[in-house]
């Protein structure tokens, strides 16, 4: 049995910290967390303080390392995107295809089927469109948006069976309650987003099995005192999970702090980056569906905008969202780490990731006390 022993850092197991303990990894899986005076035989890796945690999980990554998935929906693109985010602590992610042609969606599904087999960080696929609402299009192309048809439901179910984890963002206006129920019962993770729906319409789809909301507050009907909208429904519904973009541009921290305090039930808020190709790249612009997106430097991190000023994804990485959470959202370090590990794993039903319980994948990240990433491991091997 190939055993590795990690010592020298505080260990965060997904729920709580362990001090003066060692993490034991055997054959790519967590074996135990034990006292440092009770170590088994194995290769010892001594870390210079800081925190050892499960690797970060990102459910919404449009690009990285200079590549957008939409530019080339291929295994090679997915591998480049994964490599672009790994220096920032992300060990599992869902490459995300934003609204595009049917051909692009088919190519992304075929690529994801192969990429997940490599077991190098692609944990599934996120299709954000084309079943979105033109009224809340954001940076997506409205002319490509359309309602979900029965053939789409069948295609999603086949893709989920082949890939393992499939997340689809759909506007409530573009999908029936019956279609949501059929998708959810087949294991497809349905998230409501880019929607101008009423709170009642959202709640009907949550009750039918829609599991989450895509980038809470952004591109959706807002919270009003008589019309709570999608924002109000998401915060109030107990089983609904909500991704948030914590970059200082997409949502004011006061709104995020309010949502964090108000969210009820098992569903929680969790971090997503919604990152574009410039994360892990030194370029200052890229092309999205034929339009130039430019990087504007300043603030907590740079922001990405179209020529009319519309935000077009983010320029944030996962470790930065954790720093933002601790600095601006009044989060403890433990809760900020959960929002990048345990909570997205639970939302995506990745049962063996996001925590360091016995049997979990030994996907790990080591952080300094200043919350910078020093190293990552995939299944116990340096990555």
Automatic annotation (TrEMBL):
Amidohydrolase-related domain location: 52-381
Molecular functions per Gene Ontology: N-acetylglucosamine-6-phosphate deacetylase activity
Keywords associated with the record: Carbohydrate metabolism, Hydrolase, Metal-binding
Signal peptide: none
Documented EC number(s): 3.5.1.25
Class in the EC hierarchy, top level: hydrolase
PANTHER family: N-ACETYLGLUCOSAMINE-6-PHOSPHATE DEACETYLASE
Family per similarity comment: Belongs to the metallo-dependent hydrolases superfamily. NagA family.
Protein name, per record: N-acetylglucosamine-6-phosphate deacetylase
Species annotation: Rhizobium croatiense
